[in-house]
Write a structure and sequence with these properties.
Strand content: 35-45%
Number of domains: 1
Distance between the termini: 9 Å
Largest sheet: 3 strands, antiparallel
Radius of gyration: 12 Å
Shape: elongated
Order of helices and strands: EHEE
Number of helices: 1
Strand order of the largest sheet: 1-3-2
Helix content: 10-25%
Length: 57
C-alpha cells in the first residue's frame, strides 16, 4: 500500500537546517518495512511530501 506523508519546515532557518541534516543522516524513515519511493520539497523549502510504501498487513 502506498502512503503520502506531508511535512512543513520551521520558519527559523537554523532549525530547518538541523532538521534537513537529521533527514540526511537517518533517511527520515525510522520504521522497518517502509520503503521511501520519492521525496519532493517545495521550491521555497517550506515543506513538501514523501511517497512511501508498506505492506498492508
Amino acid at each position: 500500500m502506498k502512503f503520502m506523508l506531508t511535512f512543513t519546515w520551521a520558519p527559523d532557518a537554523r532549525i530547518r537546517e538541523e532538521a534537513i541534516e537529521r533527514l540526511r543522516k537517518t533517511s527520515g524513515l525510522p520504521l522497518t518495512g517502509v520503503t521511501l519511493l520519492g521525496r519532493w520539497t517545495r521550491a521555497d523549502l517550506s515543506g513538501g511530501f514523501d511517497l512511501l510504501e508498506a505492506d498492508a498487513t
